[in-house]
Amino acid sequence: MRTGQQLEAFSTTFGLVASVSLHIAAFAYITSATTHFDFDFELTLPAEVEFGLTGEMAMAAAPTPPPMKAAGIQAAGQQEDEPEQPTLDAGIGPDADTDTDTGADTDTDTGTDTVADTVTDTVTDADPIAPPTLTGPSRIPPGAQLALRIDMKRVRESPLGPDVTGFLQGVPDWQLLLDGSGIDPVDDLDRLLVATPNLQRAKLVLAGRHRRDGSFARTSVKRLARSRGKTVRWQRRYGVATAPWHNRDQTPRTIALLSPHHFSITRRQDLQRLLAMTRARELRDPKKEGLVAARGPDALLSMGPEEAISLEVEGVHRFVIGSVKHVPVRLRVAVRETGPDEATVTALATYASATDARDALVYWKKVATFYSQQLIMTLAGFGKTLRRMEFNPEEERVQVSFKLNADQIRFILSYAEGRLRGSGGATRPRQPSRPAQPVPNEPPPTKKGP
């Protein structure tokens, strides 16, 4: 056989082998990419759930002996979630005589209390949370929440700071809630909480600790109001100074000054729940929860030692359709830097009993093993990570830990930003339209597996 024929035969054979190899690789990739673990549950976003804790709101608001009349005390026997009659805040400083309310606030909460506020104090770091977090109604119904906490100070000093900043700035909700106030969450805050029961922007809760002087929050409120052509009247509710937060979103909100450096931005009806949740976090065992012990508004923002980001899910069962046998009651995932290009992720899952925790440990090990063998996970660099996961049971809790490199963290942040941008009700500005007609028996949107 001549040289030219040999080359032609070789090239033909090579082309056939290469083509078959590519087709096999493509088939393997497609098969791997579309293969999922056979979960016995589906994830959903409950439309009607309210902001709250799994089941500790009642403990946080347990009745105590009748209090003396004091700032922010509610009347005995007040119904749950009944709004407190606000009074003017006598401690608002130089704006007390100049800021008034035009009455344009569309929040129509009504109701009165038989015990009035005696406003003679200012909000101070020494007593930042109002007594009604313990002496209010006998029960505040439990709810659910997805709560993201970020140590902004640590993030600013981290090599991943620009990536986290890009993630936050890429979420359109910041524009609607903070635009016009002059607050930059990355530059102005040392700690940030973003919480929601179902990713609906209407129920979004913000809280933070800023690093500016004591007038920063009030100046931001006034600046935002003026940008909307409104004025401000400060009132005291549940013992803390509050004012309308005239955000660009359609949902009326209230800002509450929990201390000179702590604030929250919520719907008016969520403020009482937020205060009760603060007290509930104080009562938890910080060591078991992996948190730094804290009191007052710092308990609301508390994270673990050296953590940069944490995500807590309260009432996990509310986000599940199907079997909840291996689903925790509460979940906490935290990220802390353990090297210049490395971070350790720790997930703490709390179950109803030690037996449930042991069964779940076996189940989730199977899930991790399954996905560690998928080609797409290997190509994305997560196969080895899944194989090296450490599972540690402790009574009713299961702790899972693993390490990520900087590129994996950037990938996750980019993916999360894309999901947030694409989630219908969470981040897209609501366009005015005719009210949609309800569809009878229409199920909520669901997603298979985690």
- Please tell me how large the radius of gyration is: 26 Å
Q: How far do the termini sit from each other?
A: 61 Å
For the sheet with most strands, the description reads: 13 strands, antiparallel
- In total, the number of domains comes to 1
Percent range of helical residues: 25-40%
Q: Mean of residue pLDDT?
A: 74
Side-by-side strand order of the widest sheet:
2-6-7-8-9-5-4-3-10-12-13-15-14
Descriptors for this entry?
450 residues; alpha+beta; 13-stranded antiparallel beta sheet; three-stranded antiparallel beta sheet; 16 helices; 16 strands; 33% helix
Structure notes:
The strands form two sheets. Strands 2-6-7-8-9-5-4-3-10-12-13-15-14 form a 13-stranded antiparallel beta sheet. It has a three-stranded antiparallel beta sheet with strand order 11-1-16, with no helix packed on it. The chain starts with a helix and ends with a strand. The protein is globular. With 450 residues, the protein is α+β, with helices and mostly antiparallel strands. The chain is built from 16 helices and 16 strands. The chain has helices at residues 3-34, 57-60, 132-135, 152-156, 161-169, 173-178, 185-188, 216-227, 271-283, 286-289, 297-300, 354-372, 375-379, 383-387, 406-422, 424-427; strands at residues 41-44, 87-88, 145-150, 189-196, 205-210, 235-237, 240-245, 253-259, 262-266, 307-314, 320-322, 330-339, 342-350, 390-394, 397-405, 446-448. The protein has one domain (57-427). Strand 14 and strand 15 form a beta hairpin. Mean pLDDT is 74; it is low at 27-34, 62-83, 88-136 and 424-443. Helix 5 packs parallel to helix 15 (406-422).
